[in-house]
What we know:
The structure is a single chain. The chain is α+β, with helices and mostly antiparallel strands. The chain has helices spanning 4-16, 69-79, 84-89, and strands at residues 24-29, 38-39, 46-47, 56-60, 65-67, 82-83. It has one domain. A hairpin with a 6-residue loop joins strand 2 (38-39) and strand 3.
Amino acid sequence: MISDNLADWIQWEKGAKQYLYNADLTHKEFPFHTDEHDHCELCWARFGNSPDDLKTGYYDRTNSCWICENCYRIFKDVFNWSSGEENLTDM
């Protein structure tokens, strides 16, 4: 069962992140040629080149944003995301 706080947060994310619905995400490595960093669009986990940063995740080219692998698993069905990975299992 989902706690009330988590349920409220999920409802807020669904409303605030409308641009993420039906996104076509690409699983890829964060670009290592840059000193820049980025954050997961949902949980704010950090992508970058520092030792503790995430190195791979899902990238939304349309909105230029990253989704960490954990949020992808949690929110994939909520936002109706697609990635090329589903097609690989159908072959």
